[in-house]
Amino acid sequence: MKILTVTCHPLKRSLVLLACAMSLAAPVPGQAERLKDLASIQGVRQNQLIGYGLVVGLDGSGDQTTQTPFTVQSVMSMLQQMGVNLPPASSLQLKNVAAVMVTTSLPAFAQPGQTLDITVSSMGNAKSLRGGTLLMTPLKGADGQIYGMAQGNVLVGGVGAAASGSKAQVNHLSVGRISAGATVERAVPTALGQGDSVFLELNDTDFSTASRVVDAVNKRFGADTAAARDARVIRVRAPVDNSERVAFLGALESINLTPAQSVAKVILNARTGSVVMNQAVTLESCAVSHGNLSIVINTEAAVSQPAPFSGGQTVVTQTSQIDIRKEPGQVLMLKGGASLAEVVKALNAIGATPQDLLAILQAMKAAGSLRAELEII
């Protein structure tokens, strides 16, 4: 029997190292996390804002007005609002103006006068926004109301820069940012200060985690303080006074607890071949054939009996053997617990492509051998 030794592509080599590290790592108990990292308070959220505006002062890198008539219409409308009336038959040939979309997020409890960072993105065929100035642009929410005003000099990061040791340009000239480029004009009301209760919303729906959160809150603040409404929302009794409520929520977010183990999941990037999995992923006995590749996973039960009259208990452990073949005589055999990390490592060792890996994992999932959710991105 000949043992196969191959040289892997750098991408595959990194995947092999990832698989080796995961296969050698022993399962560890979950670590405690702060409640603020597991859940959010209902009503405390961001609101997206958007606006349409013009960037002027470009050095001949603006929109080609023959192909973007909306830029010319926007300029004429702006001039009319400023008292400049152009003849109806005027044909503007502009090279230093670009139509842009302005986006940002309005944080919770934002008050008028507060400044926000904004992103300015070209929506025409402008070559670059470098050196341009965004004219005053109203920012609207989903309800159509104006919540902010934006204006300022556009900064296009990384202009002229290249990656170290590379000839490729890494900057993107049609998108820029303005630090503190928007001012909040209207606050969004929240219901945080109303009623005698607040509601926690878990980031991930999980009955076990919701139950642990309720137990941790009741242990910290007393019985009947928290009660789960479902696997995601938890009602918590809070003080009515605003000052006391803020202090209470600060203490609530600082509670440490160990969340329940997440669902077994495997994420595969079909373009790069990257595989990410958690420790809950397991494999059952199966055999897969794909082209000139074949995989056989056998699981055997090993029984360990205690000595007579020792008072011990009989222990049954599962041992598995993974046999992956590519060509006759070339065999890579792994012994130990059957894990997906070992399968990935073995497949990459014999030169399997990301498409091979994708097809094999899908076949394992369809056959019921892969005990995990398979997500392909």
UniProtKB/TrEMBL annotation:
Assembles around the rod to form the L-ring and probably protects the motor/basal body from shearing forces during rotation. Residues 1-32 form the signal peptide. It holds the Pfam family FlgI. Belongs to the FlgI family. It is found in: Bacterial flagellum basal body. One of its GO terms (molecular function) is structural molecule activity. The basal body constitutes a major portion of the flagellar organelle and consists of four rings (L,P,S, and M) mounted on a central rod. GO terms for cellular component: bacterial-type flagellum basal body, distal rod, P ring; outer membrane-bounded periplasmic space. Keywords: Bacterial flagellum, Cell projection, Cilium, Flagellum, Signal. This is Flagellar P-ring protein. Coiled coil: none annotated. GO terms for biological process: bacterial-type flagellum-dependent cell motility. Its main location: other.
